[in-house]
Amino acid sequence: MNPANIMGASKRVSEMIVQHKSMAGNSATRFVTVRFGNVIGSAGSVIPLFKKQIKNGGPVTVTHPEVVRYFMLIPEACQLILQAGAMGKGGEIFILEMGAPVKIAEMARDLIRFSGFEPDVDIKIEYVGLRPGEKLYEELMTDHENVVATDHAKIMVLNCASVDVEILDPHFAMLKQAARQRNQTAIRQYLKSILPEYSCPGHASMFSAEAEKPQTMQQ
């Protein structure tokens, strides 16, 4: 996964908390996590935006000509999430088979053609550049995570070590404090302390052999 922005880092931290909750053993509820890519037609999907831009006569805005993403239909995503939940014994992180990644620029061109127009003739495509923390290629796992097959062809499980959240509890407390204060720099620092794989330029991890406790924030 290698998060490069706050959204991706917060998702990974949430996975850690859910996994720890399941491993705690003091609840009858089974907690599992399911990772997957984009869902076509969902609230955050780019397709409704493209359709609106085409309806308005363009331009259709794409961040980068080489950007690619994974996509899945809503019914398939819902079914696989329910099946993964039924398979889980507690603490697993499941990952859905998303198929081949789709180039967003080509998707935009196809939507323009399906709407009865010619790309770059009737409707222009405008490249606006990647936003801060946005990747060209979507990653659903880190280099340190191993994927293990399950009995379902489209559902895999990550073979990763469980996280001792109690060690990280002080860092979570400082992260919450930074969030309440809307201190963006501190939020990135504490996320980096919790997640070494979080690529946060300019903010070094606060984990070190000399400092076992997180730094104290100024009030």
TrEMBL record:
Residues 2-158 form the Polysaccharide biosynthesis protein CapD-like domain. It comes from the Bacteria. InterPro entries: NAD(P)-bd_dom_sf (IPR036291), Polysac_CapD-like (IPR003869), Polysaccharide_Synthase-Rel (IPR051203). It holds the Pfam family Polysacc_synt_2. SUPFAM superfamilies: NAD(P)-binding Rossmann-fold domains. Belongs to the polysaccharide synthase family. This is FlaA1/EpsC-like NDP-sugar epimerase. It comes from Desulfosalsimonas propionicica.
